[in-house]
Amino acid sequence: MREKEYGIWQALSWADLAALVEKLACGLHQAGLRRGEHMIVIGANRPRLYATMLAVQSIGAVPIPLYQDAAAPECVFPINNAEVRFAFAEDQEQVDKLLEIRDECPQLSNIYFDDPRGLRNYAETGLAALDDLIVSGNAYAGAHPDFFKTAVDQVQASDVGAMFFTSGTTGNPKGVVHTHNSLLNRAKAGADFDKLTHTEEVLAYLPPAWIGQNIFSYAQWLACGYVVNCPESAATVTIDLKEVGPTYYFAPPRVFEGLLTSVMIRMEDAGAIKRRMFQYFMSVAQRVGPNKMDGKSLGFTDALIYGLGNFLVYGPLRNNLGMSRVRVAYTAGEAIGPDLFSFYRSIGINLKQLYGSTETAVFVCLQPDNEARADTVGVPCPGVEIKVAENGEILVKSPGLLKEYFKNPAATAEVLSADGWYHTSDAGFLDAHGHLKIIDRVKDVGRIKGGSNDGAMFAPKYVENKLKFFPHIKEVVAYGDGREKVCVMINIDFDAVGNWAERRNLPYAGYTDLAQKPEVYQLIKECVEKVNADLSVDLLLAGSQVSRFLVLHKELDADDGELTRTNKVRRGFIAEKYDVLIDALYGGKTSQFIETQVKFEDGRTGSVSATLRIDDAKTFTPVKAAA
Length: 627
Description:
Layout: E1 2-5, E2 8-11, H1 14-31, E3 38-42, H2 47-58, E4 62-66, H3 72-81, E5 86-89, H4 92-100, E6 110-113, E7 127-129, H5 130-143, H6 147-154, E8 160-165, E9 175-179, H7 180-193, E10 201-203, H8 211-224, E11 227-230, H9 237-244, E12 248-250, H10 253-268, H11 272-293, H12 300-321, E13 328-331, H13 338-346, E14 351-355, E15 365-366, E16 379-380, E17 385-388, E18 393-397, E19 404-405, H14 409-415, E20 422-430, E21 436-441, E22 446-447, E23 457-458, H15 460-468, E24 473-479, E25 486-492, H16 494-502, H17 511-515, H18 518-535, E26 546-551, H19 571-577, H20 579-586, E27 591-599, E28 605-616
Parallel strand pairs: 1-11, 3-4, 3-5, 5-6, 6-7, 10-11, 12-13, 13-14, 25-26
Antiparallel strand pairs: 1-2, 8-9, 9-19, 14-15, 15-16, 17-18, 18-20, 20-21, 22-23, 24-25, 26-28, 27-28
């Protein structure tokens, strides 16, 4: 592993890591952690966080990574549900969080911190430095030289290896129990599929509590032996990405959207000649780039012009994005916009989609090289079976399935059938080429009722993702099931729209003020109507065109309960919280006052209010297929 500290990359060899893990394992055993018990780890990607997870697993205990940006009350349920006594906390922020909830979690007896800054005068019972644990573990290992090897040998592949709490879009999160085999089997399957080796370089920058990060930078790291690089901080990820130059890269669509937005902002600020050159060669890339990436032959002229574009634009752009060495890049978690997907592939980045979830240890479907398409999520991985239920729900059978939901047999029975099929809750189908297409969540796919589109299918996530492709739109929440038309609430991208406004000498006093500018509404309206034009040629979803929209006065935030910690929209919660806005959208109003309570990072609460404008958008007559 490598960790960037004070601007310098520090390397940790496998041998040094093994020695560290043994000391930590011995120290945890001596402190009282026993086989089958749970230990939470909370913090950013750090070698000593990973070493602690390995140490916990080595003695037959079970690590539970929690989101480092979760508010303290969000940690109470997982800690109490799993009866956690031991915790690893990265720094003062995480220690304070755990100490804050200690009265609600009286069994939480041992808290070990990695970074001592700010903690010198803390005198809490059971609070100790990880360095102290390492010292005591080293002494125990010296006195009991066979303990560690014996403990490791006792761990079986079928034992519980880790537990991950779902993001909890409704109700309390559920603890997803995985065995060592389910995690490593899927890690190996993904590695074999893309021919990953120990020579790969990976940047670990997403939350360790997210199953995707845990597979790509932990389970596959162990399966392949490649190098995992831990950035200095969240603020330096972009710089670190360029320095590392990963060969294997994973990010949710939101990250790819953000990178593209930053590129477009810079190009808008560039000189006229550079802008025209960029626009010309990008039009060439969009026309021939995907075919080149798919291994198809290009004509001599196209190959020549693309090669020139690669020298002048695409190569420098890949380098600027930190993707000049990327051999395989994946995105998952949400559907990615087709234009966004083709943009990256057109400039020579092998971006592909995968399908999976926490319960499936990620890898269910992967896209083979030369078969990557924006409208599918690939073919079933080795060992995976897929079938589609009568209601359109995708069912999965795989070695990577969860063992159970912890202490929740009723929920386990809902998703795991007696014959081993996992109910994904996603609606989709296998196309003629064996690729899986996802439409939406089964519970979210609805129908328009009344009006000219009566009975038409409504897939909110599909509409939301098409709108989010535009760099000026950050988040969208669509409604329409059981109603006569589709209406959406939109979050603008503050950086992108702010840059757009500044170049037009449009003054604004913050997000709320900028969001309600008439000029901004016109900008967003153009985006909505472009999506409507695209939807009009899709016979299945032409009825999902957006009739009315508004721009929200605040950004949707996980701290306010509007997003999950993995940034998924909590549509039902938002519908209740903003019911007055939904009533206004469907009631024909042109404006609506709203005041909303918000929670700040330090735990304080406040409120933000505004009178929101509501606009109509042009819809288009569905285009009939040619006979």
